[in-house]
Amino acid sequence: MLLAPSLTSLGVLDAAATAARLPWSDLADEIAALLQDHTVAVPPRAVLPLAQGGSLFVMPATDQSVAMTKLITFTPGNAGTGRPSIQGDVVVFDIATGERRLVLDGPTVTARRTAAVSLLAARHLAQTPQGPLLIVGAGVQGLAHAEAFIHGLGVREVWIASRSSASAEALAAQVRALGAQVRVVADADAAVPHCPLIATCTTASAVVLSAPPRPDAFVAAVGAFTPAMAELAPALCQHAARHGRIVVDTSDALHEAGDLLQAGLDVAALPTLADVVSGLSAAAPTHHSGPVLFKSCGWAGWDLAAARLALRHASPTTSATRSSTTTPA
């Protein structure tokens, strides 16, 4: 009797198999390479509002050999229900043949490439990359950033702040399993003076961080991705602009970086991560040069980098588990 081919053999990867193809350091390296690849084309993403406050995201991108589209739904109403806020897939095609090569788990790609972008930025911009690291928000992006910074920067101490103590303790257990020391704190602002690395990874429905960062701080803000959303207080952003520097992930932040727009900053004048990676920006840290705020809004190019890497990596494991994240773009 002939057996039906498995989904994995057909190139449809679940969450675990997708993650296995996207190691942290390799993914950060692939993102850096993509930023210097002039064949990459990324049109604006399409965002279709859905009933009951949800959104459908369609995010295509291509280079000279690979084309992909991320198709995901973002459903804020799923928070706290046990259902993922983000669901969907990344479909990867070979340009020469038109063949569909892979279908990757969309939430897993989103989580890993977002944290890998923060890792790449920290490699270039963090003055004290060993940490401690403060994570604000105990969702999937909080765990992804902890993993990325532990594996990619050698961080060994992580502080966690969340509106939900149960979520904070659950994330703390996961981070301890990675070999890091963990401290759960009730007040994120009170932890800021102790942590030169900060990642805000919330749903960005309200400001979660107000305290001005220390002079050697690197802050990655990844939760807000529309003009109406903000994790950081305007005064914090203005402090970073006056006393340090601000870098955005792409020029799309001009229309999407709610934290910076609500602070009244000229987002169009800010350097991008591509400027930093290519050495075209003066944003690289110098001794006592002030805090660095890295504002990440998301870009289909990051998903293309993940697709390129996934095509090259063999998948050692599979699982039926799907994952979720709180940063859809």
UniProtKB/TrEMBL annotation:
Pfam families: OCD_Mu_crystall
UniProt xrefs under InterPro entries: NAD(P)-bd_dom_sf, ODC_Mu_crystall, ODC_N
Protein origin, superkingdom: Bacteria
SUPFAM superfamilies: NAD(P)-binding Rossmann-fold domains
Signal peptide: none
Gene3D superfamilies xref list: NAD(P)-binding Rossmann-like Domain (3.40.50.720), ornithine cyclodeaminase, domain 1 (3.30.1780.10)
PANTHER family listed in its UniProt record: KETIMINE REDUCTASE MU-CRYSTALLIN (PTHR13812)
Name of the protein in its database record: Delta(1)-pyrroline-2-carboxylate reductase family protein
Source organism per UniProt: Acidovorax benzenivorans
Organism classification: Bacteria, Pseudomonadati, Pseudomonadota, Betaproteobacteria, Burkholderiales
